[in-house]
């Protein structure tokens, strides 16, 4: 019922959506190219593709998610909109920062299985010490 | 792949299942053809966009899944009844506990609750349908197809066996070869689309489609709990979607997100899984809280105590639920800092939950309590759920959890919350709203038998498991030695399990019995309800729900109207033509293409997945060029349905 009027309200060809869609694809492909085809250092690759990611997120919020649209018909919609975005930001930060913290703290940071075995880990040092201790 | 790899072979139980599946199929086809029901099936059910019918289909599917998951459970309990039993081998046992857990959570608990939400929420807010009825049908069909895809695994290709948590590297190609694990990935992925769409649909419905006068703080508690649940769904499910996609890449396309080689991080899977998984447990408990709130208030004949406190505690839970996930893997070893923080957040989340328990108790305090079956389930919930909650707080202490983790203590904990919370809630809600769905109540006397059988069986089954856990019995073991001394308690537990099985059968019998013999309701208000769903003149609301959209002046509007003797009576001049959405077969067809897509990926037959994908996109394109604005129900038809004379 309600969507009928809403759908007719926009009218015309959805240029905004098409441009947003194409730009999103371009940004993704460029990120892929930077990661796979260039000789930049890992740090730089990360910085660049993160930059693209944020750009794309912003783009999608603008082009698809009606970020700037404020249907001021009721006070409620405005507050719901702001609450929604704040909660989204909260969840996004928890997921990213939380995961990095959890995955890099404590023993978890040894979760790299490909490191050459000869390398001297902290743990190995510990073992050597206890061996020394035993020989006393 | 040869045919004997395609079909699961070798086990007599599986052959038995094959035969019964084929017989059931033939039976259904025969019935539909013999009684010329095909057209009825298509127009009334497969193409419907009516929220009440979709809700009933969700609930029917969920009850079937409860049966399947329950059979799994009883098979496990049979194997564990005595030490060193030879009933199931270890691989078979692993498959069964994996499908049991996955089916119960994803294909039983969630659709049961979503089904009840579908039936009830639009009625409670005085709306004629949901915001996006067509999308609602897409939700149902993607869920249903996902569930079916997952369920056929035990006869075609083999079941997943890495647990419902599917930890890597156990779930990798190396350690879980074959299609089993792919069924998990694609079954959940496809059903997940439906869940996410439901989240969006009901969020918009509740925010935008409330009857005039129903402000947010006048909404019934069940609607509130659904709203909060939808918010959690919208923010939690994308995490699962991404995690499943990454694991699918690992398994199908050789990427290294979670693998041991190529600098993959296996524990990142556990991290992402529980980032979704903990909010998920609140998704399956909050609607149950809402159901109990309605029932306790109705049968105590009192407004819910601490209405606002209840709402704020739920909102708090929605935020908190994203801050506790590490309690599922304290033993991973993220160190004292991480574990302490998550210990504290986990204990803190017990507080808003505790607040609610007191709200329910105070609602009953000095109320005129009627001990109907829905009320019995609600009382049973309060008592048993507290046991689950208290042991949960014990598990929350990281240092202590090193002892409890992966023992039967944990198994008992989550069954005390999932069964005494979610399952009791589903039963209570089903019985309470049964007259809204079918026009008659379930028999109360048989219903009480079900309650007592199930509740006693439940405690006999799971109480011993706490002690088995404390005694060191690990979870997910397919057998144990005589010397362990775990035999007797396991036998007790198994007996309790079968008691629950019997209770389920009696419940199903009650459905049949009441269908045959129950007195049909003559009014819309079967229980003396307080909220708008009870205000429809007929027991089962017509497809447009309300001939005239009600206007609400406060909480428990309908109840206060009744008290004041001022229930509105519709007259012919109130009736206007009603705009309704048209039925559509596209969601069902889209679901079928999803099945092709999923099945293709499960067997790594990319051509088939590709065809399915084209079908899905085709239906999307078709839909976007379809200009169907629905239709109008004429005044005459409404008058006739409402039995109002001009
Ligand atoms: C007839 C009632 C039930 C019985 C007898 C039962 C029994 C069991 C058993 C024996 C296990 C496996 C323990 C092991 O790891 O070896 C298990 C696991 C589990 N159950 Fe149940 N269960 C029942 C109902 C339910 C319900 C209603 C739910 C959810 C709403 C549920 C959710 C789970 C989950 C999530 C697991 C963990 C699966 C895993 O570890 O992979 N169960 N149950
Ligand atoms: Cu949790």
Q: How do the strands and helices of this protein lay out in sequence?
A:
The complex is a heterodimer of chains A (136) and B (646).
Chain A (H helix, E strand, L loop, with lengths): L1 H9 L4 H23 L4 H22 L11 H30 L17 H14 L1
Helix pairs in contact in A: 2-3
Chain B lengths: L2 H4 L5 H23 L3 H9 L4 H30 L9 H35 L8 H19 L28 H29 L12 H33 L12 H35 L6 H14 L15 H29 L8 H24 L1 H7 L3 H31 L5 H27 L16 H31 L39 H7 L14 E3 L5 H17 L3 H19 L6 E3 L1 H8 L4
Bound molecules: protoporphyrin IX containing FE and copper (II) ion (CU).
Describe what is shown at a glance:
The complex is a heterodimer of chains A (136) and B (646). Chain A has helices at 2-10, 15-37, 42-63, 75-104, 122-135.
Structural summary, described in words:
The complex is a heterodimer of chains A (about 140) and B (about 650). With about 140 residues, chain A is mainly α. Chain A has a domain of about 70 residues. The termini of chain A are far apart. The N terminus and C terminus of chain A are likely disordered. Chain B is mainly alpha-helical and about 650 residues long. Chain B is built from 20 helices and 2 strands. A two-stranded antiparallel ribbon of chain B has the order 1-2. The N and C termini of chain B lie far apart (about 70 Å). Chain B is about 65% helix and about 0% strand. The longest helix of chain B has about 35 residues. The model of chain B has no long low-confidence stretch (mean pLDDT about 90). At the A-B interface, helix 1 and helix 4 of A face helix 8, helix 9 and helix 11 of B.
Bound small molecules, which ones? Answer: protoporphyrin IX containing FE, copper (II) ion
CATH architect. name of the largest domain in chain B: Up-down Bundle
Structural class of chain B: mainly alpha
Q: Describe the sheet with the most strands of chain B.
A: 2 strands, antiparallel
CATH homologous superfamily annotation of the largest domain in chain B: Cytochrome c oxidase-like, subunit I domain
Number of structural units classed as domains of chain B: 2
Query: Which percent range describes the beta-strand content of chain A?
Result: under 5%
| Helicity range of chain B | 55-70%
Spell the H/E element sequence of chain B: HHHHHHHHHHHHHHHHHEHHEH
Taking the sheet with the most strands of chain A, its summary is: none
Helix content of chain A: over 70%
**Alpha plus pi helix count of chain A:** 5
Uncertain runs of chain B: none
**Head-to-tail CA distance between termini of chain A:** 85 Å
Counting copies of identical and different chains, the oligomeric state is: heterodimer
> Quick one: overall form of chain B?
globular
What structural class do you assign from the helix and strand content of chain A? mainly alpha
What's the pLDDT, averaged over the residues of chain A? 73
CATH topology of the largest domain in chain B, which one? Cytochrome C Oxidase, Chain A
